[in-house]
Amino acid sequence: MKKHEPIKRKFLSRYPRLRKVFLKRGASSIDVNLLSMISLFNAIEKRKDRDNSKIKERLDKSRTVALSYFEHIQEEHTLSEIQQAAVGRAIDRLKNKFSKEGVVEAYNVTCQLKF
């Protein structure tokens, strides 16, 4: 997974408090990424009447990181059929049905896939 190290470092440097809390608890950077996406969706819900273009930009960047992570796992790791289906479902949620619920499902997949 060395391919993703610069992306992870760049992402985590944007959220220092989140990173500190989650990494202390043993979470991986992809977990932090997905959890921050959930908080960004919450921010959009709270600010319905305001301009959310910057938040949506951050969401798109985070989604790109998450997609590259799942695609990398699909290519590089030997997965069981169940894991393969779960990763495929996570990719589908992030690409086609991008919503808060989809991100929660993707987060649940990462909890099952600890390498």
- In whole angstroms, how far apart are the ends? 10 Å
Largest sheet: none
Uncertain residue segments: 1-5
In DSSP terms (H or I, runs of 4 or more residues), the helix count works out at 6
Structural class: mainly alpha
Overall, the morphology is elongated
Mean pLDDT: 76
Q: What percentage of amino acids are in beta strands?
A: under 5%
Number of strands: 0
What string gives the helices and strands in order? HHHHHH
Explain the overall architecture.
- The protein has six helices and no strands.
- It has 115 residues and is mainly alpha-helical.
- Helix 1 crosses helix 3 and helix 4 runs antiparallel to helix 5.
- The termini are close together.
- The N terminus is likely disordered.
What's the topology here?
Elements: H1 5-14, H2 16-24, H3 29-46, H4 53-76, H5 81-95, H6 100-112
